[in-house]
Each structure stands twice: as C-alpha cells, then as structure tokens.
Amino acid sequence: MSDNVRPASMSRINTQALALAFIDEQVAALRAQIGGKKVLLALSGGVDSSVVAALLIKAVGQQLVCVHVNHGLLRKGEPEQVVEVFRGQMKANLVYVDAVDRFLDKLAGVSDPETKRKIIGAEFIRVFEEEARKQEGIEFLAQGTIYPDIIESDGVKAHHNVGGLPEDLQFALVEPLKFLFKDEVRVVGKALGLPDGMVYRQPFPGPGLGVRCLGAITRDRLEAVRESDAILREEFAKNGLAGKVWQYFTIVPDFKSTGIKDGKRTFAWPVIIRAVNTVDAMTATVEDVPFALLQHITQRITAEVAGVSRVLYDLTPKPSGTIEWE
Ligand code: XMP
Q1: Inter-residue long-range contacts of 231-237, CB under 8 Å, 24+ positions, other chains counted
Q2: pTM score, two decimals?
Q3: Could you read off the pLDDT of 209-219 as tens digits, one per residue?
Q4: Which of 118, 323, 325 for a ligand 1 pocket mutation test, highest count of atoms within 8 Å of Cβ?
C-alpha cells in the first residue's frame, strides 16, 4: 500500500473521543519520529497549520519552532491572534516575521493576477528560507498537508505552484494530518483546545487579501479591503451567518466612481461583497443575505472605511463567476 493512501481501517474522526484517541496516537508517533531533534513549521494561523502546531507542541514542546510570516495580506487581527494563541497561551517557540514592507514593495505596480500570486508564493518561500537558515539543528519540516491535498494535487497545497525550499534545506517531512479531511481536522483542533475562531475559520486563500485588492495593490486600497472585510465578518457573526455561510469576503476593484460624503462630492472606490455556499468549491451558490442586513453593512462600510462610497453585492453563482475575483 502506498504511504499516501488513507488506511481502510481508519475510522472517521467525528467525535471528541475519537479525536482524543487520534491525538494520543499521533503524539506517540511524533515523539518516536522526532526524538530529541528540532522541527520547523510555517504557521499561517489557518486551520491546518494551527492544528499541526498544537499537536507538535503537545508532542515535542520547545523542539518545535513555528515561523509566522506576516506578509501584509492577512485579515484584520490575524497576526495578533497567532501570537496571542501560540506564544501567549500555548507557550510555543514562535518566530514572528514582519515582512509587510518586503511583500508590498515587491508587489507594487504588479497588476496581473497570476504574477501577483507567483510573487507572493516565491517571496514567502524566500522569507521562510531565511528564517530556516537562522535556526540551528533543524532536522524536520512540519506541514499541514491534509488528505484532499494528496488526492487533488499530489500532496502540494493547491495553487502553491512556486517551487520549494532549496536542495540544501531539504528536511524530513512531518505531516500528521495527511489522512484527515477538513471536518476531521476541525474536530481534532477543537479537542486540542484551539479557539473556535481558529478551528471554524472559513477558507482563506494563500495569497490572502492580495487577490481581493484587484489589480496593482496599493496600501490604502488594501486597508479598505481589510477594514471592509472586518465589518462584514463582524456583522455575519452578530447575525448568525458566520458558521452557516461557507465563504464571505469583500473585494475592492481598482476604479473609482463619484459619490457624496459629508456633503462633498468624492471620487471613491466601491466595495463588493461576496458570500457563497459550496461543498467542494468547484461550484457555488450565492447566500440569500437578508436585504436589511446588506443595507446595514453598506451603511457601516461607507461610513467607516476610508476611500469607499459604494457597496455592491455579487449575485453570481460559480459558474459563471469563480469564488474569488482574481
Ligand atoms: P475560485 O476563485 O477558483 O476559488 O472559485 C475556489 C476556492 O479556492 C480558493 N482560492 C485559493 N486558495 N490560493 C489558495 O490557497 C489561491 O491562489 C486561491 N485562489 C482561490 C478560494 O478562496 C475558494 O475557496
């Protein structure tokens, strides 16, 4: 049997008890594999890398070195939450890298979506490589590979088509979640004591807000994406939609329209809201968000987000629209 086929005997992890049994088994296996050596992990704060981090902290504690790269394209509050949960609560060995200027400088003036993705992916590898070189005695690299990554894309996280670490930095891989489906990863994360805000997060693309700040990214428009996204998330949470809608976010295109703010004519960006449901992200339907809530969100975004004077709701299913706009 291939190392990459989920064993037929493995039961579906859908209860706390099964998650605890999985955790015990993995902790023992990780200790046996890693011994007294050091492990490196790129911790984005997404569900998969967070669960891998929590498992490894339980198994090998300070032998784990987590690297959190803030590339400036994360959602509001995310880098702070990673530091608070992993360094503050879990006492993890966490290296926080503020790479915001590096990424935004590299992306300046670049409007082609695929080039943007490649720059973000390649720069990420470069920053991570630099941090890896600063660490002494690393022998293992942990990854949040999950079973769909193996089935759908040969074990590579989707869209990460940017190569990997150089030859002289090839570590042995540690992939404790590689036979789990997403719902199982969440059950395990919950059993490990991770906060709900991390465990039940909606999917978030690797290039982050970079694919939602359309065209060439500017700092002020990126801020408009981040602030409008935070308002949308807050309102969806308050109104019971956060756990129900599969993915919801805002997009800011790189054009302006006329508007009126504080009695004066403005020339400002529109914010586009997208909220969709899907099973496998191959097709998607649009959430029927109550009109009064859309109006309330519109009122908040136009009042609170600098440089924005209109809000639009995307009514397009997939197909014909993709979920993201870029
Ligand atoms: P689309 O836009 O293709 O998106 O309908 C389907 C799902 O994939 C996510 N997505 C990405 N995830 N890197 C990622 O890690 C990317 O470049 C990327 N582009 C889209 C998207 O958010 C949706 O969940």
Answers
A1: 231/297, 231/300, 231/301, 231/304, 231/305, 232/273, 232/297, 232/301, 233/75, 235/293, 235/296, 235/297, 235/300, 236/275
A2: 0.93
A3: 999 999 999 99
A4: 323
